[in-house]
Design goal:
It is a single chain. By secondary structure, this protein is of the alpha/beta class. Among the domains are: 9-149 and 386-537, FAD/NAD(P)-binding domain; 252-311, no CATH class. 32% of the residues lie in helices and 17% in strands. It has 17 helices and 20 strands. It has helices at residues 20-31, 48-51, 72-77, 87-100, 190-200, 226-234, 236-244, 264-277, 281-284, 294-311, 315-321, 339-342, 389-393, 404-407, 441-462, 471-485, 516-528, and strands spanning 9-16, 36-39, 107-108, 113-119, 124-129, 134-142, 164-167, 182-186, 205-210, 216-218, 334-336, 348-352, 358-361, 365-368, 372-374, 377-380, 395-397, 426-428, 466-469, 534-537. Helix 1 runs parallel beside helix 15, helix 10 packs antiparallel against helix 11 (315-321) and helix 15 (441-462) packs parallel to helix 17. It is globular, with a radius of gyration of 23 Å. The relative contact order is 0.14.
């Protein structure tokens, strides 16, 4: 329906992105009787799960929790097959939702938003796309995701390499066969930790280039037991209610004891149980002070290091794989299937690029300060420009033509992670300053979408034209986000939570670490007080 010659198409709302956020936002707004257009760069729905199709790609939240809760019938009818869902299964689920709710008719695929400009005179957003389409909307909702702009390889000579290159965040749609090939994986974050075991089973030789080791916990993934599923679905309403008021968006009970006050034998037993259970949350909630006290955290970190030493047979490799530069959980904790055991394979070599950095690519491989490695293929697991990358790639301008990239030059500023002062009727779903990546993000997405939809409904009911955060409320919220973060160990890590993986990016802790439940209470309180901290325009 793109028509570059026509005048701007007038809508109630434009939504950017057709992942979990954009799909639900479309459903909510359309159900309110609004005219909505979703703009999506991919060929189909899915968001991050459309692009991240690398071998081993999988969610680290249990499948029965990593799905929508707004439709009880949908909850019951969809059958997940594994404890932790794979990328293909998540994509099938989202495609099913799109079919079930007839969403695709209002989504423009293979289209990127190039600019979104607010017009003070008309109180409307003008949104332009790379297809030449121009849309005019009262509301603009950025459902662009937190991990959707890939970090490109920063290495000299990449274009000289004659072999194949891949990025985990932009994986080909057709199958890639590594059988008998010499493969290099650069990066050992979540994507690298997932892709390495799978590629190792195919490749003749696999070199894993690691600068910084990360903590990873076993997933203990497997098929879902039908009886477990039946019992889980029987108490879905109660389970979801608990998740919405929890710390991480999953209803785990935190042990309120300090890790430092319990007997060492008891503590060891608790950690063993968490390891055996699998996943990240059981370990993180084992004691109340693990993310707040360095000594307490060290007890859990050393437990994981010892597990790595037990699994990896070569002591030198095991030592290189044990993280010592950040507390456990302060970088996105990884969940794996046989990652550490993979380094026991004779065809796998760990390359330490902290002691001998990559100097450049050559025509035939990679040269470090210590050696050259001949490779047929290179997989870049180099991550994302998280939280802000996609938003700042679009030319977003608010009142007076102020650019978002200029307003955020020293780091992102929002009110509640939902609104930006000077940018009326612009909503950022799971934006910086909200729990987002520190939670089961689907829970956070639903909360943001529902809050935004209720806000728009309230404005329409009252006959108001605009809503935007006040500078004072924004500054106060940013200060609160920082204050809460400083009570934890999170700022001690050079993580993508603070933008440390992107050269020149301001070091600012971007998520809200105060918890999903407390955050929800704050947002609800703001709405109940007539949208306290917002400027309402007639």
């Amino acid at each position: 329906m793109n028509d570059s010659t026509a005048a701007a198409r007038e809508l109630d709302a434009v939504v950017v992105g057709a992942g979990f956020s954009g799909m639900y936002m479309l459903h909510k707004l359309r159900g309110m009787g609004l005219s909505v257009r979703v703009i999506e760069a991919g060929d189909d729905v899915g968001g991050t799960w459309y692009w991240n199709r690398y071998p081993g790609a999988r969610c680290d939240v249990m499948s029965l929790e990593y799905c929508y809760s707004f439709d009880p019938q949908l909850e019951q009818e969809w059958e997940w097959t594994e404890r932790y869902p794979s990328q293909p299964e998540i994509l099938r689920y989202l495609s099913h939702v799109a079919d079930r709710l007839d969403l695709r008719r209002d989504i423009a695929f293979r289209t990127r938003v190039t600019s979104a400009h607010y017009d003070d005179a008309s109180n409307r957003w003008t949104v332009t796309t790379d297809t030449g389409e121009t849309l005019s909307a009262r509301f603009c909702v950025m459902a662009t995701g937190c991990l959707s702009t890939t970090r490109k390889p920063p290495f000299e000579g990449v274009d000289d390499f004659r072999g194949r290159t891949f990025h985990t965040g932009e994986w080909p749609h057709e199958p890639v066969d590594f059988t008998g090939r010499r493969v290099g994986v650069i990066g050992t974050g979540s994507s690298g930790i997932q892709v390495v075991p799978v590629v190792a089973r195919q490749a003749a030789k696999l070199h894993v280039f690691q600068r910084t080791p990360n903590f990873s916990l076993p997933a203990h993934n497997g098929p879902l037991d039908p009886n477990f599923v039946r019992q889980f679905k029987a108490r879905y309403p109660a389970h979801r209610a608990e998740a919405r008021v929890s710390l991480f968006g999953v209803p785990w009970e935190i042990d309120m004891n300090s890790a430092l006050t319990v007997p060492p034998e008891q503590r060891q037993q608790k950690y063993e149980a968490a390891w055996a259970q699998g996943g990240a949350t059981p370990m993180l909630v084992a004691y109340v002070d693990l993310l707040a006290n360095e000594q307490a955290n060290e007890t859990a970190a050393e437990f994981v290091r010892q597990k790595i030493r037990e699994i990896v047979k070569d002591p030198k490799t095991a030592e290189l794989l044990t993280p010592r530069d950040h507390p456990l959980g302060t970088k996105r904790i990884c969940v794996d299937t046989d990652y550490y055991a993979t380094f026991n394979r004779p065809n796998v070599e760990l390359v330490d690029v902290r002691s001998a950095p990559i100097e450049r690519f050559t025509a035939t491989g990679v040269k470090t300060a210590a050696a050259e490695y001949e490779l047929d293929d290179v997989i870049f697991a180099t991550g994302f420009d998280a939280m802000t990358g996609t938003l700042l790639r679009i030319d977003v301008r608010g009142r007076g033509g102020v650019a978002l990239k200029d307003k955020w030059a020293d780091g992102p500023k929002t009110y509640l992670g939902l609104s930006v002062a000077g940018f009326p009727n612009l909503f950022t779903i799971t934006g910086p300053g909200s729990p987002s990546v520190l939670s089961n993000v689907v829970v956070s997405i639903e909360q943001h979408v529902e809050w935004t939809a209720d806000c728009i409904a309230w404005l329409r009911q009252k006959g108001y034209a605009t809503i935007e955060a006040t500078p004072e409320a924004e500054e106060k919220w940013v200060a609160h986000v920082n204050e809460v973060a400083d009570t934890t160990l999170f700022p001690k890590a050079n993580s993508w939570y603070v933008g440390a993986n992107i050269p020149g990016k301001p070091r600012v802790f971007m998520p809200y670490v105060g918890g999903v439940g407390p955050y929800r209470e704050i947002c609800d309180g703001v709405a109940k007080k007539g949208y306290e901290g917002f400027r309402i325009g007639a």
